[in-house]
Design goal:
With 483 residues, this protein is mainly alpha-helical. It has one domain (9-44, 140-482). 69% of the residues lie in helices and 0% in strands. Helix 7 packs antiparallel against helix 8 (156-167) and helix 22 (425-444) runs antiparallel to helix 23. The chain crosses the membrane at residues 241-265, 336-355, 376-396, 402-420, 456-478.
Length: 483
């Protein structure tokens, strides 16, 4: 009993009896069971666009891609009926959809018949789609996190607790297993790339990163730091540098080449156009980045041309990623790499073009992985994860996932001991002020609906979240300066 009492968090006390030398062989199976059960519990809730005709939502978009890749030749995948969830992710997502569609069609071909299956919401198709996300994680994200955890030479207890903290991260679970997407495939590939970089296996790192980018174009959030790191560790070794370049080109050719072969230049061009829809505008909905925050007081789209906004966004993003890229180039060390990747991804989220609220998962990945490298970062990492979950509230509320949002968030915060800050008094005051603002938004929203300001609480959420995200970005710059 005294041994258990010295552990600080409920999760540590729960895991401690398991994380011993005699029970070490049970750790990974236990992690897998807990991870699966948490995902399954979230998946029982509703999802994006459930019962909302005619377009439904992200669930239907993903299902539709499984459908169209089954019945159409590859050259038509990125051209088919673009008004109804046209395919707009890179080739690896298309191939992933094709593989899942093949498996699903073997179980029940009615789930994915071309056009006539649109909007299908039977129990069977929902069960299959939900488990397709879990299966995809079991093949990518979860193994990558377990692999990454092996870099940590701390106690079995610390590694196990940190791994569970990462795998039970509410923002990831609520988006992929609640709202419905396959973000963890991209995140898993990036985690694998980080692992290989830290192990000095640059060609595997490049291959994994290209796969990440070929699954979702948002993987570009990491590109400057990945490029700077790989360049730094190879540019003085010509043979290694050339081999890295050949590996990168070969990986891109593997994923994008088939569309050039079957559709020619126009076919490949269409893939790129669908991946980068600049015509959609600077941001969508009320996302917690700089442009949405400015737009509250100064309507950007009304006063500045779209092309000018794109250039401004590009300039701010380049300036935002520059410190991390320079630092990791000059000092390509594992601890610096994680901090730099986090800083770079936050800069993209805060300043780049066409940001979605779900994109917060990208900077959260390297940020949360920092838990493996230092206990000193825990207060800030917990803080920014809590704010990130809060920033997703408008989306999750629209999806009918309020119960999952509340239970999973509070349970994770309690288990991991993230409710309290161990920082200096000014930092603690800032953290608690943010928490107070979040609670106030939740408490007031049901009772103070303003008819002429229908987006009042969504905007309030975005502004509170933006303030926290901007502060965390500055914190990453400060830590890079110290490292």
């Amino acid at each position: 009993m005294k041994q258990l009492e010295k552990h600080k968090t409920p999760l540590e006390r729960i895991v401690a009896p398991l994380a011993t030398q005699s029970n070490a062989h049970l750790v990974v199976p236990a992690i897998l069971v807990v991870a699966y059960m948490a995902r399954l519990a979230v998946s029982f809730g509703s999802y994006s666009g459930q019962g909302v005709s005619p377009m439904h939502g992200d669930f239907e978009a993903q299902r539709h891609w499984l459908e169209l890749t089954q019945h159409l030749p590859m050259r038509e995948w990125y051209f088919y009926d673009l008004q109804y969830w046209g395919l707009d992710y890179p080739p690896l997502t298309a191939f992933h959809s094709y593989a899942l569609g093949k498996i699903g069609s073997l179980l029940n071909e009615d789930w994915f018949t071309l056009d006539t299956s649109r909007g299908i919401e039977t129990y069977g198709v929902k069960l299959f789609m939900r488990h397709s996300v879990i299966a995809s994680e079991l093949l990518t994200y979860i193994p990558a996190v377990l692999l990454f955890s092996s870099l940590n030479k701390d106690t079995v207890l610390h590694r196990t607790v940190t791994t569970l903290t990462v795998l039970l991260q509410p923002a990831v679970l609520l988006i992929d297993h609640g709202h419905f997407q396959y973000n963890t495939v991209m995140l898993g590939l990036m985690t694998a790339s980080l692992y290989f970089m830290m192990q000095g296996k640059v060609n595997l790192a490049a291959g994994a990163y290209v796969a990440c980018l070929a699954f979702k174009q948002m993987g570009l959030y990491y590109a400057p730091v990945v490029f700077a790191y790989l360049l730094s560790v190879t540019y003085q070794q010509p043979h290694r540098f050339v081999l890295l370049g050949m590996t990168t080109v070969a990986a891109f050719a593997l994923f994008f080449g088939p569309f050039l072969l079957v559709g020619g230049v126009s076919g490949l061009q269409q893939v790129i156009i669908r991946m980068f829809p600049f015509g959609r505008g600077l941001f969508e909905d009320k996302v917690a980045n700089l442009w949405c925050a400015i737009n509250v007081v100064y309507k950007l789209k009304a006063h500045i041309k779209g092309e000018t906004l794109q250039r401004m966004s590009l300039l701010f993003t380049l300036l935002g990623v520059l410190p991390a890229s320079i630092k990791v180039f000059l000092k390509p060390q594992p601890k610096v790499l994680l901090l730099a990747t986090s800083s770079c991804a936050w800069a993209f989220f805060l300043f780049s073009f066409q940001v979605h609220e779900k994109s917060v998962l990208l900077p959260l990945l390297p940020t949360t992985l920092l838990l493996y490298s230092s206990h000193l970062y825990k207060s800030w990492i917990g803080y920014i994860n809590i704010v990130a979950i809060f920033s997703l509230w408008p989306l999750l509320n629209k999806d009918g996932l309020g119960l999952q949002y509340a239970v999973l968030s509070l349970l994770w915060i309690w288990l991991c001991g993230f409710g309290q800050s161990t920082e200096s008094m000014p930092i603690r005051a800032f953290h608690y002020a943010t928490y107070l603002a979040m609670v106030a938004c939740h408490a007031l929203e049901p009772f103070f609906a303003v008819s002429h300001l229908p987006d009042l609480w969504t905007v309030a959420n975005a502004l509170v979240s933006f303030g926290a995200f901007a502060a965390f970005y500055l914190w990453t710059l400060y830590q890079l300066l110290l490292s």
